Amino acid sequence: MKKIILFLLIAIPFFSFAQNEKATWDYPVKPGSKEWLNIEDYFKRFELLNIPAPLLKKISTEELVKSCLNYPEYQLVFTRNDLQSGYNFIRSMFNGFVELETRPDAGKELMKVYAGYKPDGFDLNSTDLEIGKFMSKFTYIEMLIAQTEILNKLNPGDLREMLTLCSQK
């Protein structure tokens, strides 16, 4: 009996911590770093940014949204003739976007983040570059929100809320 109690005292905290562990992804190799520059093949560099498949299925939608919004090469959306083509390009390079589009709660999680964005939230003394980065942050999240795969998963009430939120911004 004592062995069972001892086992339970050891095992229960272990299992409860294991279930509460939060899976995150923070790009171990960043563009511009020494490791990044040592890889000569342009497309192999992008493979380093992909979330490992086992983690991709475990990561919460909230954390996946953060990872997608922090995608180090998001500025590549501006390298095509239009933003949708740019998004399609980075989507083809990063598995996080593909996974995000499959999540039924992606729109709601993006809406939570977007609600905190303030269009006038920059310092008037900012440089043009800082203002440009601030504006591209809005473009980027709005581009994710506008994806048909994400919008189609919103119920009518959430869709109205999203439209209201977007019109306010």
Descriptive overview:
The protein has 169 residues and is mostly helical. It has helices spanning 2-20, 34-37, 42-47, 53-58, 61-69, 83-93, 95-102, 106-115, 128-145, 148-151, 156-168. The radius of gyration is 20 Å and the shape is globular. The model is unreliable at 1-20 (pLDDT under 50).
Offer a quick outline of the entry.
Helices cover 64% and strands 0% of the residues.
What structural class results from the helix and strand content?
mainly alpha
Low-confidence parts = 1-20
Tally the beta strands: 0
Helical coverage, percent range:
55-70%
Give the rounded overall mean pLDDT: 86
Q: Return Rg in Å.
A: 20 Å
Helix and strand element order: HHHHHHHHHHH
Tally of helical segments = 11
SSE topology sketch:
Elements (H helix, E strand, L loop, with lengths): L1 H19 L13 H4 L4 H6 L5 H6 L2 H9 L13 H11 L1 H8 L3 H10 L12 H18 L2 H4 L4 H13 L1
Helix pairs in contact: 5-7, 6-7, 8-9
Observed structural traits:
169 residues; mainly alpha; 11 helices; 64% helix
